[in-house]
Amino acid sequence: MSQELEPIVRIRELKPDRVNFVLENVDLALANSFRRVMMADLPTVAIDMVEVQSNTTVLPDEFIAHRLGMIPLVSKDCDEAIRYTRDCTCLDGCAYCTIELTLNVACNEAHTMDITSNHLEIANNLYDINEDSGDELSKRDPFFGHPVGKNEAGVPPVLICKIRKGQELKLRCVAKKGVAKEHAKWSPCSAVAFEYDPHNKLRHTTYWFETDIKQEWPLSENAKEEEPAREDEPYDFNAKPNKFYMEVETDGSLGPQEVVMKGLQELQTKLANLILGLKSEPEMEMNQNNQLAPPNEHPDTAPVLQSQWNQQRSPGAGTWASPNAGGGWGSGTSPAAGGGATGAWAGGATGTWGGSSPTAGGNGGWGTGWSSPGQTQGGWNV
Asked: CB–CB of 46/186 below 8 Å?
């Protein structure tokens, strides 16, 4: 795949609850990471605690609580409209980190009655709201926290249970913000379809068949987007997929456009944090050496340490060699990268455990290995 090609997104179909698009000129790992982020890393609101006050139905409390937790709630702009309970300053829930819903249904007639998500009501604000605490409440949608599709024509509600005459169900629910890594109820997606190489040119899939593979394994609609493989075409061992067909179906808590856009933002944030963590290692090691310097060292010696750091840079391999510093695990220096082509660890440092750190031979393999602590009559060497 050429390095000059930029990623391309082509939307084939967009509906209120799903989007179908083609992602081109990206690596397989990036496309799969994008899929996983959309399913498991986007915050939504879901019922997390249920207080059952009265239940005379045929279903136990735990069964009903599980069903309530799986009901999708409107979570538009959830990242700004509500806080995580772990990040809130309250002690036992407040209007900024929780949403309270109530359900109180009783059957007084001689017929079967359905209790659905339409019976869930947002409770009146029972918390003391401090205007100086934050602006989360002003960023909420008017239907934020309501069950998806409540009282909307053509949208069937979620069935919770059925009751007969004389039975009732009364409970109180507390909805919180979370992600699907904690529990699947916080996932905004009901399904994410992901396909590449519909003609199996790369042979990443092995089909089991009896007589005819083409009839027993019909091609998908995405096969129309690519040319089929020729029988006389040699197999390319270095070929990589660069065109991915994705369809994101949401449960209604977030719209498909919001899921895709916030998924890209979340993936970008994760990659940026990874790059930042990798870049900060030399600076962290230098700061650690400065902190472990003798107490009588003057602060003005920091430029000298920096010059030593620059002078001891290996000219051949382009890697860094840290300056000698007292303290730490032992009196020796930290491992330095060798200047040869092997790039293996050279030298060793005597630690406080009584052994020496591992050294590497010229072939890049480990030398003596980690030595176990030496034991004397008085105990362990220090």
From this structure: yes
Write down the pLDDT at residue 280: 66
- pLDDT score at 365: 42
First-to-last CA distance in the chain? Answer: 56
d(CA 179, CA 36): 12
3-state helix, strand, coil in the chain (%, to 5): 25, 25, 50
Average pLDDT over the chain reads: 78
Q: Where are the alpha helices (DSSP H) in the chain?
A: 28-40, 61-69, 78-81, 213-216, 256-279, 281-291, 302-311
Q: What is the pTM of this model?
A: 0.68
Selection from 277, 5, 274 nearest residue 266 by Cα: 274
Q: Let me know if domain 8-41+190-279 sits in CATH 2.170.190.11.
A: no
Cα torsion angle, 131, 88, 70, 193, sign? positive
- Give me the DSSP letters along 137-177: GGGS-TTTTSBTTTT-TT-PPPEEEEE-TT-EEEEEEEEEE
Q: What is the pLDDT of residues 167-223, one digit of tens each?
A: 999 999 999 999 999 999 999 999 999 999 998 888 888 888 888 888 888 889 999
* Architecture of the domain whose range is 44-186: Beta Complex (2.170)
Q: Which has more confidence, 284 or 114?
A: 114
Q: Are 217 and 224 in contact (CB under 8 A)?
A: no
Domain ranges of the chain: 8-41+190-279, 44-186
Angle CA(31)–CA(33)–CA(35) in degrees, nearest 5?
70
Residue 106's H or E segment, with its range, is strand 98-106
DSSP SS3 for 288:
helix
Q: CB–CB of 167/107 below 8 Å?
A: yes
Cα dihedral sign, 24-27-28-29: negative
CA distances from 274 to 43, 261, 271 (A): 21, 20, 5
Nearest-Å Rg of the Cα atoms of the chain is 31
pLDDT class for 90, splitting at 50, 70, 90? confident
- Residue 75, Cβ density class (10 Å: 0-12 exposed, 13-18 middle, ≥19 buried): buried
